[in-house]
Design goal:
The complex is a heterodimer of chains A (about 290) and B (about 350). With about 290 residues, chain A is of the alpha/beta class. Chain A has one domain: Rossmann fold. Chain A is built from eight helices and 14 strands. In chain A, the strands form two sheets. Chain A has a ten-stranded mixed sheet, with helices on both faces. A two-stranded antiparallel ribbon of chain A has the order 2-3. In chain A, helix 3 packs across helix 4. The radius of gyration of chain A is 24 Å and the shape is globular. The termini of chain A are far apart. Chain B is an alpha/beta fold and about 350 residues long. Helices cover about 25% and strands about 30% of the residues of chain B. Chain B is built from eight helices and 18 strands. In chain B, the strands form four sheets. In chain B, strands 7-11-6-1-4-5-12 form a seven-stranded parallel sheet, sandwiched between helices. A five-stranded parallel sheet of chain B has the order 15-14-16-17-18. Classes of the chains: A alpha/beta (about 290), B alpha/beta (about 350). At the A-B interface, helix 3, helix 4, strand 7, strand 9 and strand 13 of A face helix 3, helix 4, strand 7, strand 9 and strand 10 of B. The structure holds flavin-adenine dinucleotide (2 copies). The site of one flavin-adenine dinucleotide has 30 residues of chain B, from helix 6, helix 7 and strand 17.
């Protein structure tokens, strides 16, 4: 038994440690000031795929990402950790996509990849923060979805059993394949890069990267086909341009603003017994407490 | 036609708070728009749903009562909403940004080709101009939400597709009875017209749901601890003070991550949103994601050894000192002075 697996992974700015310089005066995010990383929960998703591959050799894992040219870093990162193949979906026509247009584009690329039994995505990306792309891709492909997955309890040729992490508990569900599974941050973290794979795929490149970098050892790409990362445009996946990018997005960002909080005039109190007792008395008198 | 719909989350026949909060907000938006509020109940034991929700100003309740709809699974609930929305053509649909709403909302929006805005913190009605096409849209739903880890807020509109769909977290909107005697109409459906066998392929094998023990959301006073509290033992001081004041204990994410407090107590963007009468922040620096969940507290008291901690700028009372020193004094003087 072996499976064909697609992992959806997004390159995101690291919004978890946003410093002052990361925000522009007009309230927009200066992406250039934030390191671009593999979306954290997509690494959890990749690990789930790798565990299936551990158990069923012959399983093939393809990483699919949509983004600008530099998102090819995500594909290499996935290959270093054990994925077999990478596809970069990139085209100016994809720019400005909301989750619906993103899902449409990803689903067209998945149709082009063709055979799949399982699709893993992260629960949520840390920049858009919507958790919508997974379920929407599933809908576009007309397959079921299992969200908030924490682990695979059992997998057979035609069905899978998944443990889901809910707010106040867990749920075990069973579903026929193919299915799309969104993986929670509480799932096992991803294994590190493998040194051998790092050596093997270090020079893996997309067509565009090869052209702009004008490499001298260009013939290695003919002798080692695994170094060629697939790169697809709107036309390559036979997508309808109107349904992609900004034009395919029902939601429009009207305005963004920096978050500012109303500052208050505060009363300052030291930690002396006297001042704390005065404070408590005041709070009791004006019925704030008690 | 073109009304505002709310999807109800129901467990054991009880409508979830988040749904009642959405009905409250929905009623006020509908008043502005001059449209009706309609609610959808899909599941079992729905007899008492009407009496729970009509006082919130619901005009029509759509009932889908069927064994196969509980516990919730994605596909049958999606099929119901998709077909019902094709028939009813709502202009707005609101769902909780919960485990269920965030599973169902995107699937429905994809099927209908309509937009969906996640985790809104504010919903308003306003106009929108598309300057390029010289087109003005009246009475759109402004869907305001944080993004980029809470560092920005975006106002999102959905000019051309219906329904305008949005999810909202529990606790973000206020829950308020509109009229205790309000009466709406109930429509019962034959679920077979909406759900087919293919929707039932996902099976729930086992389910453990524990009722939450802590109820910080409804507590009038919250004593909240951050990383600066230092240890689980020091958190006991917070529990002592909370006991005296009749308060609940909350926590920042850093305190939860450090194991000082349970996850259920986390306040903030990825935790619970609270608006108590009094919020006592102990050893909390006041990062944007924490403030997002407590800024509407009426009175904020900050205890911090750093006088320039960001939380101090939104506090009414700033106590500069060590948590482990200040709290015992507060306990002592509270005991002494409360009669
Ligand atoms: C300020 C702001 C607010 C926004 N708000 C909304 C909104 O409310 N509604 C809306 O529809 N759009 C919104 N968008 C657009 C949205 O962020 C983008 O469409 C984004 O590309 C996908 O959404 P996400 O980051 O939320 O991903 P999520 O839906 O959170 O991602 C879930 C998973 O899907 C997969 N995935 C997502 N994107 C890709 C990709 N490009 N390639 C491969 N896999 C991927 C990953 O596995 C990821 O873990 C907003 C954008 C901005 C800038
Ligand atoms: C996407 C995202 C979502 C997030 N969601 C949330 C969320 O929902 N809720 C949340 O809280 N955070 C959230 N965070 C994390 C947030 O950014 C902060 O890291 C966190 O709030 C910091 O917690 P803290 O104030 O307890 O810790 P710190 O920032 O470490 O602050 C500790 C404070 O204690 C003070 N202190 C130290 N010792 C003492 C002492 N002995 N006595 C008195 N004061 C002392 C220090 O001066 C400091 O001000 C989120 C982050 C991201 C990126």
């Amino acid at each position: 038994m072996a499976f064909n697996i697609i992992v959806l992974a997004k390159q995101v700015p690291d919004t978890r440690n946003v410093g002052k310089d990361a925000m522009k005066a007009d309230g927009t995010v200066n992406r250039a000031a934030l390191p671009a990383i593999f979306n954290p929960e997509d690494l959890n998703a990749l690990e789930q795929a790798l565990e299936v591959k551990d158990r069923f050799p012959g399983t093939k894992i393809t990483i699919l990402t949509m983004g600008p040219g530099r998102a090819a870093d995500i594909l290499r990162e996935g290959l270093f950790r054990g994925a077999d193949d990478g596809v970069l979906l990139t085209d100016r026509a994809f720019a400005g996509a909301d989750t619906l247009a993103t899902s449409y584009a990803l689903s067209m690329a998945i149709r082009k990849i063709g055979k799949f039994d399982l699709i893993f995505s992260g629960r949520q990306a840390i920049d858009g923060d919507t958790a919508q792309v997974g379920p929407q891709v599933a809908e576009k492909l007309n397959i079921p979805q299992i969200t908030y997955a924490e682990s695979i309890e059992n997998i057979e040729e035609k069905s899978i059993r998944i443990k889901r992490r809910l707010d106040n508990g867990v749920e075990i569900v069973e579903c026929p394949l193919p299915v799309l599974i969104t993986v929670n941050g509480s799932a096992r973290s991803c294994r590190p890069r493998n040194a051998k794979l790092l050596l093997k795929y270090k020079h893996a490149k997309t067509v565009t990267e090869r052209q702009v970098q004008n490499l001298d050892y260009i013939d290695i790409y003919d002798s080692r086909p695994f170094l060629n990362l697939t790169e697809w445009s709107v036309a390559d996946v036979e997508a309808d341009p109107v349904q992609c990018g900004l034009s395919g997005s029902p939601t429009k960002v009207k305005k963004t603003e920096n978050v500012v909080f109303q500052t208050k005039e505060s009363k300052h109190i030291s930690d002396s017994d006297f001042e704390i007792e005065e404070l408590i008395k005041e709070l009791l008198e004006n019925h704030t407490i008690g | 036609m073109n009304n505002l719909f709310v999807y109800l989350e129901i467990e054991d026949g009880i409508v979830a708070d988040v749904s009642l909060e959405l009905l409250t907000k929905g009623r006020s938006l509908a008043n502005q728009l001059g449209c009706k509020v309609e609610a959808i109940a899909a599941g079992i034991n729905l007899e008492k749903v009407g009496e729970q929700i009509f006082p919130y100003g619901v005009d029509v309740l759509h009932v889908f009562d069927d064994e196969r709809l509980a516990p919730y699974t994605t596909l049958p609930h999606t099929s119901i909403l998709v077909k019902l929305f094709k028939e009813e053509q709502p202009q707005i649909c609101l769902l909780g940004a919960t485990i269920i709403g965030r599973d169902l909302g995107p699937r429905v929006s994809s099927s209908l080709g309509s937009g969906l805005t996640a985790d809104c913190t504010s919903l308003e009605i306003g106009n929108h101009e598309n300057k390029k096409e010289g087109k003005v849209y009246e009475n759109l739903l402004y869907q305001i939400r944080p993004a980029f880890g809470g560092n920005i807020v975006a106002n999102i509109v959905n000019p051309d597709h219906r329904p305008q769909m949005a999810t909202v977290r529990e606790g973000v909107m206020k829950k308020e009875i509109f009229d205790p005697f309000y009466k709406g109409e109930t429509i019962k459906y034959d679920v077979n017209d909406y759900v087919n066998d293919k929707d039932l392929i996902v099976k729930i094998i086992d389910r453990h749901i524990e009722k939450s023990k802590v109820n910080i959301k409804n507590s009038p006073i919250i004593v909240s601890g951050g990383y600066g509290v230092g240890s689980k033992e020091n958190f006991d001081l917070l529990y002592k003070l909370a006991d005296l004041l009749g308060a609940e204990v909350g926590a920042s994410r850093a305190a939860v991550d450090a194991g000082f407090a349970e996850h259920e107590r986390q306040i903030g963007q990825t935790g619970v949103t609270v608006r108590p009468k009094v919020y006592i922040a102990c050893g909390i620096s006041g990062q944007i994601q924490h403030i997002a969940g407590m800024q509407e507290s009426s009175i904020i008291i900050s205890i911090n050894n750093d006088p320039s901690a960001p939380i101090n700028s939104i506090a009414d009372y700033v106590i500069t000192g060590e948590v482990e020193n200040v709290i015992p004094k507060m306990i002592k003087y509270y005991k002494k002075n409360s009669k």
